[in-house]
Amino acid sequence: MRYRQRSSNLRTRSWCRNESRSRRSWLATPVARVSYPTDLRIFAGWCHDHDLNLFNLKRAHLELFGRWMEQEGRMASTIARRLSTLSSFYKYCQIEDIITKNPAANVRRPKVDCESRTLGLDRNELGALLVQAGLGDVRDGALMTLPCWRSTG
Q1: Among 40, 56, 100, 111, which residue carries the largest CB count within 10 Å?
Q2: Running DSSP on this structure, what letter comes out for residue 105?
Q3: Greatest CA separation found in the chain?
């Protein structure tokens, strides 16, 4: 019995270590490092323009922010990501006792298709692909460069 308890504790500790590692690593992606602060900056600017205190909001304010983004022509995936960022931000603020109630807890987010609507690579992505192709061996570089050359030529 004692052995079982011990192994269960080891599994729990291992899961906690992996869980905290995965939570830390989500911000390590280049997209997250850029988009998370940008989303917060855009929302803070919107709050400033509407004379709202960032830490004294209601769910309706976040819903209005979402509708504002729709009117500005933002894609559903962008709106969903920004509202998700705000949900994480306010959850953190609640945990740290900065606010008492999370205004983003039940904010409706737009449905996002699983498939991307992006038809191809943009100019920067194409450039990065060609750089990586040039760093590999000649055969792989040629295979990657040929379709890119034909699409731009």
Answers
A1: 40
A2: T
A3: 71
